[in-house]
Design goal:
- With 365 residues, this protein is α/β, with parallel strands linked by helices.
- Helices cover 31% and strands 30% of the residues.
- It folds into two domains: 14-261, Rossmann fold; 274-364, Roll (Nuclear Transport Factor 2, Chain: A).
- Residues 3-17 and 153-162 have low confidence and may be disordered.
């Protein structure tokens, strides 16, 4: 069980790439005990991976199974239909209950897809089976994380991140994210606790491990720790253990890293139009501000309704940092020297134009 350039106008062409991140999330958001925590994990991890994809210029293919869609059958369908290109990244994340059989010598937990209060063996799925299935499809990099209990009993105790992504400079996120996700090949599997342990969460921060993993990732972006997987995961492990020293049992995340570093050249671009690229082009300081102000008005007319609003969303995927009229937003970012890039989170449309846009912001200190 579980108790985280130049701005081209008119015939504007922007670049996307054939390389992609396949993000697969299963989150038990309906559970009466941990549902709120799982929802926070789901949103935080989703924003984190979209930010990574934005820096890498990779596409994101997101499959989220929460609420009534959180089921073993859907997991089986996803695994049976999984297809990977040779340079794809597959990131699998589970947030829910878990456990293990007393005679099980495998160190990885089994994910629990039972309904609340039920513990039927047929609805448990070992985390390492998912890991092995994904590896058989041979993506360039696969990362499998299970934030769930790894205890022998079926009942576990329960413990009843905000802001923009902030970095030291414009180059740091590229260097760190390239090292963690681009110039690397292999497999990583992680569980939030080792054999016999519970995994804790609360309704404020979500899963203790998930929140500490995301905190460690932020530390790497800010050069507080080394930007490699061993350091990021070991830091998350230490933070999680320290945070649970006063609980019924401590929580000790475990991981295995089987990767090699490679030279991965920039992907060949595929030309297409895209509103988020045009918004990010307004940040280009190589173009004078007068020109970018004119471009801002053209962007608004091209993509947005006249009454459109822009919501700036925090790293947790929930907290609203700011709400602005679209033109005021576009004018403001022209003069803001600290913003590096915007990450597209979601949008709502009316008559084929955006009426509400949700963005996450990467900025310098």
């Amino acid at each position: 069980m579980k108790k985280l350039l130049l701005f081209f106008l008119l015939a504007i062409h922007t670049f996307s790439f054939s390389q992609k991140i396949q993000l697969i999330i299963f989150a038990n958001t309906n559970d009466p005990d941990i549902g709120i925590s799982c929802d926070k994990d789901k949103e935080s991890v989703s924003v984190n991976l979209k930010t990574i994809a934005s820096v890498l210029n990779y596409q994101v293919e997101t499959k989220i199974y929460d609420g009534n869609n959180f089921s073993k059958r859907n997991l089986e369908d996803v695994m049976n239909n999984l297809q990977c290109n040779k340079d794809d990244i597959v990131f699998f994340y589970f947030s829910g209950h878990g456990g293990r059989a007393k005679n099980d010598d495998n160190k990885w937990p089994q994910m629990n897809f039972n309904k609340a209060g039920q513990y039927v063996d047929d609805y448990y799925v070992p985390l390492d089976i998912v890991n092995n299935i994904i590896r058989q499809h041979d993506p360039r990099l696969s990362i499998v994380i299970g934030d769930c209990c790894n205890n022998y009993a079926n009942i576990s105790p329960k413990v009843i991140m905000r802001g923009q992504t902030v970095v030291d400079d414009e180059e740091t996120p590229n260097q760190v994210i390239n090292k963690l996700f681009k110039d690397i090949k292999g497999n990583i599997i992680v569980s939030s606790s080792k054999q016999g342990e519970y995994s804790y969460s609360d309704s404020e921060k979500g899963g203790f491990f998930s929140s500490n993993y995301l905190l460690s990732f932020s530390k790497a972006l800010n050069k507080e720790i080394s930007g490699d997987w061993e350091t990021v995961l070991e830091t998350a492990k230490e933070l999680t253990y320290k945070e649970t020293e006063r609980q019924v049992t401590t929580q000790t995340p475990q991981y295995e890293i089987n990767v090699e570093y490679i030279h991965n050249p920039n992907p060949t671009p595929i030309i297409e139009t895209d509103y988020i690229t045009e918004i990010n082009n307004l940040l280009n300081k190589n173009v004078n501000s007068a020109k970018r102000l004119k471009d801002a008005k053209l962007v608004m007319n091209k993509y947005f309704t006249k009454d459109a609003k822009v919501y700036t969303i925090a790293k947790n995927g929930k907290t609203v940092i700011d709400v602005e009229n679209v033109l005021a937003f576009l004018y403001r970012i022209v003069y803001n020297k600290r913003i590096i890039k915007f990450v597209d989170i979601d949008k709502k449309e009316r008559d084929n134009k955006i009426r509400v846009l949700y963005l996450h912001e990467i900025r310098k200190k």
